[in-house]
Structures are given as C-alpha cells and as structure tokens.
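Hi support team,

I submitted a single chain yesterday and got back a structure, but I'm not sure I'm reading the token output correctly. Could someone confirm the output below corresponds to the sequence I sent? I've pasted both exactly as they appear in my results page.

Thanks,
R.
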Amino acid sequence: MCGLVGFLGFSREDSLPPWQVLQAMTDAIVHRGPDSEGHWLDPAAQIALGHRRLSIVDLSPAGAQPMHSPSGRYVIAFNGEIYNHQDLREALGIAGVSDWRGHSDTETLIAGFDVWGIEETVRRCIGMFAIAVWDRGQRRLTLVRDRMGEKPLYYGWIGNGGNRTFVFGSEIKALQAHPAFDVKIDRAALARYMERMVVQGCDTIFSGLRKVPPGAIITLDEGAPEPRETLYWSINEAAENGLNNRFTGSQDEAVAELESILSDAVAQQMVADVPLGAFLSGGVDSSTIAALMQAQSATQVRTFAIGFREKEYNEAPHAKAVAEHLGTEHTEFYVDGKQARDLIPNLPEIYDEPFADSSALPTLLVSQMARQQVSVALSGDAGDELFCGYRRYTDARDFWRKVQAIPKPLRKISAETIQALPVGPLNALGRVAGIALLGDKLKKGAPLLASTNQGDLYRHLLRAWPGKNPVLARPNEDQADWTRQEKIVPGFAPMERFMLSDMANYLTDDILTKVDRASMAVSLETRVPLLDHRVVEFAWRLPLGWKLREENEQITAKWVLRQVLYKHVPPEIINRPKMGFAVPLADWLRGDLRDWAEDLLDERRLRADGFFDARQIRQLWSQHLSGQRNWQAQLWAVLMFQAWQNRWNTGQNETVRTMMMAR
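Hi R., thanks for writing in. Yes, this is the structure output for that exact sequence:
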C-alpha cells in the first residue's frame, strides 16, 4: 500500500525546479508510505512521477517505485495490491517473461502491460489499486482506479498559460503542494456535500479537480487539451449481468458457492510479508471475514475492536464473544469521549475535503490500535450493500406500502401542512403521548409523504435535511440529484435498486473513503474481501429473497451470508439488533465540544466566509443546545466544513511560505 503523485507539464515561468516540486508533493503523503520514496522525471516529455512506499509484499529494493517495464516502454507508480499476481506471473511465464527481479505485484503488473497492454492487464487483475503509468513510446499518461473505488486517485488541470500543469495523486494535499495550485471552492459540490455529508461522485470540493471513477481508465496524450475516460468494469453492468444470469442451483448450493468464492478472496488477501489482522465488531460481516481467516490460518488471527462506555454505542462485548468462539488473538480498547474528541482537529487534515460521517472517529481509533501490532487489516465492509443489510431498505418499502394508497393530492397537502407546523408544540405533544421528538420525526417524514415512487422516497430518506437545505447562503445553488446515474434495469425490485444506488454512491464516497483515509493516516493497509469483484458479481446473481428472508413476520437480513457465518459461529452469538459504528455526538456538542463548535459557528465568522446563512445556523445551534431539537448531523456537516476550510486556508498559506523559503 502506497501513495502516488505526479504532473505532466513543467512550468515555463520562473518557479521551482520540477524535482523540487515533486519532492514537495511526495512529502505531503509520507503517511501513505513511510518506508521509502522514489522519483522519476523525463524533462523531454515534461512528466514527473513520485511514490511513497508502505512495504507489504516484497520488502526489498526490487519492489521500489516508480518502476520500469522490462521493455522500458512503461513507467509506473502504483498504490494497492494485486491479489492474484502470482497467477498472472504464471501466465506471463507462458508468454515468455522469465527475468524477474523480485516478487512484488508491481513488477507483475508492469510486465503485464508489456505483454497484454494496460486495459487487458487491468481486466485480469483481482485487487484494489490506483495506477499512474507513462507510455514513453506513445507519450501518453494513463490513470486507472480499481473496480469499486477502494483506492483514491485525483486529477485535474491547474495554473494558467505557461504555468498550466496536469496534476494527479492519491490525495488532494499532494496536489496542493504544487506551486501552481490555485483553485476555488465549488459551491455546487458544497451544496451536495450538505445533502449527504460527503463530497459526492467524481467531483471534489474544488472546481476543476476530479476523482477517477471506479472501474475507469483516464488517458491524456501529450498536447491534448482534455483526458479521455473509458470504463473497463461497471457495477451497473455487473448488476444487470447478474439479473440476466441468475444462480440456478439450490439455496444450499448458493451458500456453498458463496463460501468458496469468499474463502478464496480472504485467502488471497491474507498474503503479506508483514503482520496481518482484522477489524471485528461482532456483526455479521466482520465476523464472517474473521471466521474465514481463522479457518485458513495455522496460527491465531489477530482481531481488533473498539469499545465505548456508553452502552448504546458499545459493540465490544459482541466482538469479544465472537473472538473467544473463533479463538483469535483479540485486542479491545475502550475509548472515553476525550480520546475521541482529541482526534477531531486532525480530521480535516486526514480527509482533505469536508467529510461529516462521524464514524470516522471510531474508524481512526481502531486503525491506530491495530497499527500498533499489524501493518494490514481485513475489513468486513460492503456486506450491507451486497446482501440487503440496511434497515432503511425495508423502512422505505414499508413506508411506501402505507402511503401509496393515499391519493397524491392528499399526501401533498398533508406534507405541506406538517412542514408549516412549528416543531416545538409537536414535540411537546409527543412527550404527552410518549413519543420522543415527534415533531422531528414528522418533519423528517413530510418529504417522504410527498414522494411519487419508492426511488424518490428512498432518496428523500437519505438526505440530511427534511426539505430544501436552509443554511446555504445561496439557497438556489445547484442541488441537482447527487447520485451517480445508475441504469434502471428492468426486472429489478425497488430494494435491489436501492442496493445498486448505495454501491455506486454511499459505499464508494462515504464508507471506502472513510476507511482508506483513516487507516492510511496511520500507515495501515486495509483490505476488503467482500469487494473482490468475483464476490460482487456472484452476489448480484442471487435472488433478493435469499438476501432478505421474510418468514412468519420475521425479517432476516443478509440471510445467505449468515448461513456461511453460521458454519463457524453459532447464531445465538451473532443474532442481535444492528448497532452501527456511531459516537454520542449530540451530547458531545452540548458538552466538551461546545467551545470548539461555538468558535467555528461564530456569526461574524460565518457571515465573512459567505458560504452559509449565519442566522439560520445560529438558530439550529441554539435549538440543539437547549435540547429542543437534535441537529447533530446537520451541525456536524457545517462544523466539518468550517474546520476543513480553516485547515485549507492555513495549509495554502503554509505551502506558499515553504515554497518561498525553498527558493
């Protein structure tokens, strides 16, 4: 696991020498690769590649990057792991490649480029990766991202005139280290961030900077004005192929096949030349991964769990029960509020963009704990999206069943009436009736009531605000649909469409971003066996009824995955209500975080920045502090943007100072 940077186009203006710029860019992501660094520049082609290395496979200098292909045609900077690279080596051996310098997957990958070409090699790969490769013959830059978007890769044009440069890298902070970096905040991206708490899709918070889409290849020829984008794999196509090629065996055969594919994925991802372990929450997904790891290991697998003193947030006892049954070497760490809160100032630096999923805090904590013992940790992420695990899927369906019988005009009038009523009296009425926060719930439900179909209802359910976002300084700012436009495949049930949407959006933009940045901030590599594309493609072949089992008024989510787990862990240890990976944020904002938040939400400061309606935010803050409303999620989004903006402004100034001193 590593980090990569680079740029195409050297400045013709009076500036720093290219090698010094490249050094500054690689220095910015030293946390992604603390073991070594490498640089390569071609002044004639005006291309520079930089690399920071976290040594996982082949710790010798033979695995160092940037690396040249055997023919000398290609030069690569690579971040990730190719889990089947030994199989690829055997195929390359048949094709005539025999002179190997080491046993790294990077060497396998770039040898494949010589033999098969870039796209065909990538199609053969099982893994997670971000790749930058320069074709010295064609004078062409190619950027590649893995199928599900586990590894990040940013790119874009910066500067003007003779200072115009195409930059790319694993994190935005590396691009920021280039002296030509002078981009503006994208207000449309900010509006979408406020809807979903993360910067959505392939855009970034900065105008002109983009992310390479999952499963995409970006190519830029020397002298071309813009790059070209092609897809070598698509979650939409995988889902459609699964629909058209449904699994024809029995349920028992499906369970056996899933276990076989997933076991192979786990086995491949356990290959490392450094200590390895697994995150364990005690839920279905992480327990399945830990179980399959222990079943294939001759020694105790190391597992890690975070605990909270607040009982409603604490999953540690469940993780411990699973660990004891499996016989893993288990480590748990109980966190008090102060330890978690002390990390908050680091979040803007770690995430580079505003990121308001508060579970970033426990994710960072468990990564820190694991890194003390291992360099690689396997994760159970993606089980909910693949096997229908989120309760919101059934909530959306059940709510729609109740409201669709109500005539549309009546639903619309009812929604408007609820929106017009003040929350305070409704909450007071709820307290009399024994319904906590009745007003908040009705306000949240009003847009759902006005939905025209299940898809519309589900999109409303995911939004952070019950209606139009009221806190933006420009309320008419572009707030178009933030979802990637997944193809609506005829024959899919609504819940399958929800899952497809979440895989294309929430999983990549939130979950995988959260885990990558938190783990790499402490130089820990995370691997996600459930995102092996063979597992993903097989899961989409299974009928919905084998994922969500409903019998005798009992709902069992992730049924087929549970059957795999139950071969290793008895149901009574696993079966419990889903908790999620949360922190007591509402209370923290009213307590120890109050002064920190008050400073960021200062009315004069908000007005001066010009991004938010200061009056509206102060009103939300007052309501939250009094306990009248719970605005924790919405306020956290504002706070994370404000904290990020502080870091961005400070970092920008620091970069300028550093560059000037270097000159």
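A quick pointer for reading it: The radius of gyration is 25 Å. Let us know if anything else looks off.

Best,
Support desk
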